[in-house]
Every structure is written in C-alpha cells, then in structure tokens.
C-alpha cells in the first residue's frame, strides 16, 4: 500500500489478523491452510497477482507468497485504496474498538477525498503518515523484544514466591508421610499436598499476582522454571520427590557416565535448606549441594 511500484514477499507463520489472533472460519481446512488462504486474500484485495511458493528450508511453515505485479492500472489506485480500507474495517472484531480507534479521525476525509480524485496520485508522504491514516492507533512491535518468561524477575522475588508456595503445599493438610531413609534412619518425609494453580493463586497477595500476570504463563511458568522444587501436572502443583525420579532410559557411553558421576554441584539443594525434613536423598545421591562446602 506504500506505493504502486511496491512488491512484496511474505512467509506466514503465527496466526494473526490485523487486530489480534486469527479466528478460524472453515473446519474442513487445516488451520495453517486456512491462514495461508487468508494471507493470499489480503494480497488479492490489495490488487496483486499473488504467487505461492514453497521454500526449501527446514521448517513446517515454509509456504510463501510473492506479489510482483498489480491487477489494475495506476489510475485506479484511489479506488483500490478504498477497497483496502473497507477490507481492513471488515476484519475488525469489535465495533466498539473500531470507534475508539477512530477518535479524532475523519474517515470521510480519508476515503471520500481519495475517491473523488480517482485519477490523482496518492501523496508522497503517505508512507510517513501510515500509522494515522491507514490504521489509527496501530503500534508496531518494538525493536527490542522484552523477555517475559519469568527469567528476568528479581531473584529475591522468585525465592519468596517459591518458599510461600512450598509452605502452602506442606501445610495444606496434616503431614502426608512418605516413608524413606533419611540420614540412615527410618523416617518420614513430608511431600505435602497437591493444589490446583487456582488454589495456589488465591493464597498469593495481589501485588505478587499483578507482577506474575505481566509475564507469559504467569504463576505456572515460574513454578515450572523451579523444577527442582515443584512438579506441575494437569494444572496441579506438587512438591517434587527426587526419590521417585526415574534415571534416564538412554544408555550413556562410559566417558559420559564417568563425567556424570564426577559432576560438580553448582547450586544449593533447596530441600536441604528449607524443607522441614531436609532433603529426601542422601548427599551423594542428590544432584544439588548439601551445604556450601559441596559447591564448585
């Protein structure tokens, strides 16, 4: 839309429309094929001869579209521009949002003015004002993508949430005992109770939840990131019992087995420090350090 001489190449990937996620309309097609047809339709509406090609790349999404020539003469640019505007408007999913986006925007001036001068050229500075003329309120993605997978949250904040959730699971019901050997003596190790993510969230304060909601996956992502302490299965949170962890089924070469046995411990064991019964594993069997003296 920037100029009549513009050509384009597009490799469709994520299923998005102009204003949000793409909504499926045909159940007889796969989601990918339906989305490809939609992207091709955009090219046709914009007045291109759309060509489809399949790239030789190692990806499941490798169908591309190329627009090298127009289906109309330059004199009809204003008419096609009106057609494009109507198409964009028709894709809007919410009429209220449409009105909000057009506060202070004179649609008649944009469409009517161009249609009256059908034989005239579109102003040279149209590309510079595309954000306000073509789609009011449109904001492109920033050049630097913010990391929002809970990895950049302050360490003390994460530690506090982990400790709060662990204590919640441990104290949810009277101690759920699992017999095991601790320090060579017969003892019980409290694995706590499992709770749903919703139940866990209900016990966290509003400030914590607000901070987590700004991250992708929120609370669930944070708990999964701390897999040393938690196990999240089917929407329920459990405290991980390392005695039940199955060893890798893959047979390791001799060299790798030797290196694995001699591996340095670089992180402290959370259970050794915080769990009321300590770690369920003896020091030599635990992959984490029981005390700073074991750290390397």
Automatic annotation (TrEMBL):
Adenosyl-L-methionine (AdoMet)-dependent tRNA (uracil-O(2)-)-methyltransferase. It is found in: Cytoplasm. This is tRNA (uracil-O(2)-)-methyltransferase. One of its GO terms (biological process) is tRNA methylation. The keyword Metal-binding applies. It catalyses: uridine(44) in tRNA(Ser) + S-adenosyl-L-methionine = 2'-O-methyluridine(44) in tRNA(Ser) + S-adenosyl-L-homocysteine + H(+). PANTHER family: TRNA (URACIL-O(2)-)-METHYLTRANSFERASE-RELATED. Its EC number is 2.1.1.211. The gene is Trmt44. Its main location: cytoplasm. Residues 263-293 form the C3H1-type domain. Keywords: Cytoplasm, Metal-binding, Methyltransferase, S-adenosyl-L-methionine, Transferase, tRNA processing, Zinc, Zinc-finger. InterPro entries: tRNA_uracil_MeTrfase (IPR011671), Znf_CCCH (IPR000571). It comes from Picathartes gymnocephalus (White-necked rockfowl). The keyword DNA damage does not apply. GO terms for molecular function: tRNA(Ser) (uridine(44)-2'-O-)-methyltransferase activity; zinc ion binding.
């Amino acid at each position: 839309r920037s100029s009549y001489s513009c050509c384009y190449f597009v490799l469709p990937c994520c299923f998005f429309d102009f204003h949000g996620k793409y909504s499926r309309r045909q159940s007889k097609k796969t989601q990918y094929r339906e989305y490809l047809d939609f992207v091709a339709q955009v090219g046709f509406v914009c007045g291109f001869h759309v060509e489809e090609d399949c790239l030789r790349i190692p990806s499941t999404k490798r169908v591309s579209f190329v627009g090298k020539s127009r289906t109309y003469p330059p004199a009809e640019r204003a008419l096609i521009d009106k057609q494009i505007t109507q198409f964009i408007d028709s894709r809007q999913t919410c009429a209220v949002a449409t009105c909000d986006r057009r506060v202070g925007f004179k649609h008649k001036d944009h469409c009517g003015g161009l249609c009256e001068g059908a034989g005239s050229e579109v102003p040279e500075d149209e590309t510079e004002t595309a954000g306000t003329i073509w789609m009011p309120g449109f904001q492109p993605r920033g050049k630097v993508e913010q990391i929002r997978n809970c990895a950049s949250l302050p360490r003390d904040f994460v530690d506090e949430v982990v400790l709060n959730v662990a204590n919640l699971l441990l104290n949810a019901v009277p101690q759920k005992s699992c017999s095991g050997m601790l320090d060579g003596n017969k003892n019980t190790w409290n694995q706590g109770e499992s709770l749903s993510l919703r139940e866990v969230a209900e016990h966290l304060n509003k400030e914590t939840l607000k901070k987590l909601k700004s991250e992708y996956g929120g609370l669930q992502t944070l708990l999964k990131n701390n897999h040393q302490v938690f196990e999240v299965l089917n929407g329920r949170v459990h405290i991980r019992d390392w005695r039940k962890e199955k060893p890798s089924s893959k047979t390791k070469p001799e060299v790798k087995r030797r290196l694995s046995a001699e591996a340095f411990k670089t992180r402290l064991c959370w259970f050794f420090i915080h769990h009321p019964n300590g770690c369920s594993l003896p020091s030599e069997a635990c992959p984490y350090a029981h005390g700073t003296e074991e750290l390397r």
